[in-house]
Amino acid sequence: MNTVDYSQELSVIEGKPSLRSLDELISKPLDTKPDKKFYIALSITLSMLALFVIGLGFTFFYGIGTWGNNNPVGWGFGIVNFVFWVGIGHAGTLISAILFLFRQKWRTGIARFAEGMTIFAVMTAAIFPLIHTGRPWLAGYLFPYPNQHSIWPNFTSPLLWDVFAVSTYFTVSLIFWYVGLIPDLATLRERTSNKIKKIIYSIFSLGWRFSNRHWQHYEMVYLILAGFATPLVLSVHTIVSFDFAVSIIPGWHTTIFPPYFVAGAVFSGFAMVQNVLIFIRKIFNYEHIITIDTLEKMNKIILVTGSLVGYAYGMEFFIAWYSGIQAEQFTFINRAFGPYAWAYWIMVTCNVVSPQLFWFKKIRRSVPVMFIIGVFVNIGMWFERFVIVVTSISRDFLPSSWGYFKPTIVDFMILIGSFGFFFTWILLFTKALPVVSIAEVKAVVDGSQPSHHND
Amino acid sequence: MNHNAEISYIKKNIPSKVKSLGISLLIIGMLGIILSYYFDTARSAYNNIIIFLFLISIGVGSLFLISIEYLSGAVWSVPFRRIPEFLAGIILTLPIIVLPLIFNMSNVFEWLHPEILKIDELLKSKAPYLNQNFFIVRIFVFISIWLIFFYFLLRNSIKQDENKDQALTKKNIKFSAAFMPFFAITITFTAIDWLMSLEPHWFSTIFGVYYFSGSVLAALASSTIAIVLLNEKGYLLKGLSNDHYYSLGALLFAFVNFWAYIAFSQYLLIWYANLPEETIWFLNRWQGSWIYFSIGLIIIHFVVPYFGLLSQPSKMNPKRLLLMSIWILFAHYYDLFWLAIPNYSKNQVIFSWNEISFLVFAIGLLIIIFYAFANKFNLVPIGDPKLKRGIDFRL
Amino acid sequence: MDNKKLYGCAAIYNTPDEILSAAKEVRNSGYKKFDVHSPYPIHGMPKAMNLPPSKLGYAALIFGLSGAITALLLTFWISAIDYPLVIGGKPFFSFPAYIPVIFEVTVLSASVATVITMLFIFFKLPNNAHPLNDTEYMKKVSSDKYGIVIQADDDIFNESVVIDFLRKTGASEVFPIYFNDEELSVKPKILEPKFLLFLTATAIFTSGITYFTLNKLLYMTPFNWMMEQPKLNPQHSSIIFKDGFGMRTPVEGTVARGHLPYAFKNKPEDAGKYLVNPLPVSKSVLQLGQKKYDIYCSPCHGYHGEGDSRLRGQFPNPPSLHSEKVRNWSDGRIFHVITEGQNIMPSYSSQLTEDERWAIIHYIRVLQRSLNAKETDLQ
Lengths: 455, 395, 379
Fold this sequence. Notes:
The complex is a heterotrimer. Chain A is an all-alpha fold. Chain A is built from 16 helices and no strands. The radius of gyration of chain A is 23 Å and the shape is globular. Chain B is an all-alpha fold. In chain B, 74% of the residues lie in helices and 0% in strands. In chain C, α3 packs antiparallel against α4. Chains A and C meet through α1, α6, α8 and α16 of A and α1, β2, α2, α3 and α4 of C.
């Protein structure tokens, strides 16, 4: 058996790299020209993005009728994708805020990247409600501003809450990200020999000068932002769940939705971060910064949140039976054995069963296996939203208006295209900004802090 | 292997006046309970449920805290892990506390009455779950699960005091991992059985999580009370400072918010959808003098502790922390009272010597159990490999 | 070289332990205007430098609370006062439903305002012209070294003393930092043509964008789509039909609903024989009959059917309706008179619908009965 010495704190950065070598390693992708692999990857994501643009073009030109949405399933892929992408966007703030509050040092290596992912995922997500309105150019009306019609938005509508939640979440994540970037941009400013880059870095680093009088306030702000971002990240997916749960549709209206959605969001977000980081650490040689221990910890969180999601599935079923209400009972039987049973069982296998493999340490630490499980988790989470949105409204109270939802080719173009949109941003990000926080990683390297407390 | 060589711990026994306080509270409470059962059986049964769940909250919640410490690898809480371990000892008394309830079930549970079952189709359809035999089996299975995990977690921890074997930590990590699914299931179904089925037509999927949030809060608050009292009087190790208090305060603060989040989610969804079969539960708590009690719940369980623990210095101040912990522990009792009693006394809040004697009994019992464990075992897990790191913990 | 001024003395250290103890020594020696620079925050440094705790928490609290109150008032005013709508049977002021929005606004205002306060008010950033920027010193402390600068404007600053003192604290390097006062204090002149041009361009650009956003992007023509339906309005022309008319003449023989042609034209006896009053005698029917009688019949026949016209002899008075002849007429016969007219009485078929005519007939029977009651009526 391997023996872990619990009396010693394990360093989250392996090999005690020198601070200067960290600078070099992390800024290397920014200083070198992109290689062939990068261009291949970019061309793939760009062609997916082209698909996105074509799909959106069709939608704008011909209208929402090109999608599969119809009576009774008025919320098809548009909402499924929205919830999916917002969910992906939850891992970043969780890592940077909640793990920060819990003083988990292993977050430093992955926080910057996960925050970036959050921003791109929320951007992707925000597209969907916009195009779902049918006339996205009028989206300004969603905000309460005095207008010539002298009408105001409806503050009791969860769809309006979504507008507030997602825009707040995006803004706060962006600020959080930027605040973290300031010292790193200043480091890059001092390193670079390129004049144009120097000007850009100077502008965006605001003339940061590493003063400890500043660091003190900076850490305070980081704590405050983390304190605000934590309830915020919970509130965003909670509000997304309210979109469904305030209704009276069986399968939508259930009180466990808020925490269940949050757990699911963290679950899928972590799986996505883990998947992408596996490539990042390999390509950029960050194996000692994003260590296998870090990945193992992420896998543990995937296991926990996956089990929470499984708990919620179980509770829903049990209470549907316990309630004694026929419509409730039917909805859940219909989910598991009705026309969408295939989607339901894909969801259960991917979400509940596959992460249980992470009980085994060997699997938690095996990169290929964890990658596959991560992919499964994201497939499962996409299907979870599909099951919730589609099965519940395809067969509700009135059997005479039951129907079967069939997505169209445009639906699939937009779904695949949204991945193109997301990964294009990710690729550009890896070449434009440091994907690992230089200052934060330096602060947790062995020997970077005073050896003893004199207080 | 002796990783805690520098730490010197001399065991001090808790003075026996604590014991006499506990025993006198216990006896006063006991007498009150006997009288109460004699005069008003139904009301006493309801109160019995409240303290039963109150003690489960503290006992099983403490087990949860211990497991979380093992699983997350936290170090700051190691120097006072013994306190939740001792508090979890309350699980030993649960079979006795539940006994009077077993004999008075029909006083509280509507679904037990055959004449109601005959005319109520809904209750009839729930009978496979809500029936006396299965119900009793369930609670005893749950208690035995808790006892098993309590026994193993405590035994390994105590053993480690002697042999300082790191393998025991590893073992306990495995036990903790195994405990988690059991914990989730048992705590949920305890809540459904003993609180939700008091109003057997009503249902809410979040209810288990709601009770969980309250129970962890209660366990955390009672641990904090003991930790602050013992540490300020020097029973624990030297070097436990503001940073440790801060962590406790931050956890309390976090769970106060978590409780509010869960409670608000449940309320908002039921209020918004306005389905008669669900809203009735809140309407019962919004009638007569219960309306003030319900508003009081928001203030007592959320607003006061929220502002009491909001600022950084208040989380580090032992006096403030003690006050807030006592307050939160009381708030949990208040919460349970709000969950149970409106089914007994509609339209009107009742609170009298019956309720007080049950509460006094529960507090006395907690003190006695804690005293017994504290004098038998070390108050600090001196063999734990993470102890040194725990004491050196700084934010 | 003329303009170079001394900013302060800098010392470079290699390890965090050294910088921590050096910072303590500097503080203990009574220097006030000094600063420690490190590539990342060092634990215990605020204490070593004797910095007061950060007050940014208050900024967050104040901005958070004001955000919360603003959002509460906004939602209240909009939903309960300015634009009250009943939604889902909830009260106008549905506080639980506003909590999400209030919460989001609170978080948004608190976090944005706290960051802005820190960067722009506390730190007075952006400031790329600080003397320390673009120095060798900054290059070092931004990467892997730790540095202390004691500023020249400190009360007890003395260059040689400070340099000696810093050397003694274990610094690996000690050197003075100069800055070019003129270079740093160059202020852009307000009336410089370039700047004015820039200002004008910005003004035009922003107003253009604003105009475009408000009038083109967000502008929606008033709600009039119901008027613009793809259908033909009456009397409008149409290109679909050869004759250019939008309206069509009905096919021959078309009968409008409820307007069957009168079958007994010029056959009063047949009408009396075959037509039967379809209406029951009820209060509402009689009231309708009375109303219509008073409007259309009474000017000539009088309110009571006695032929006492109100037309003051400008028109020959009709005979009384109480005559034996009329009393013996069947309902259908009277119907014929109303429909077709008689003598100088014109047809009332365009003024009165068939039902109204029948109702009037019932009313006439009432009038007749009032003067010639039967004994059975008393029962």
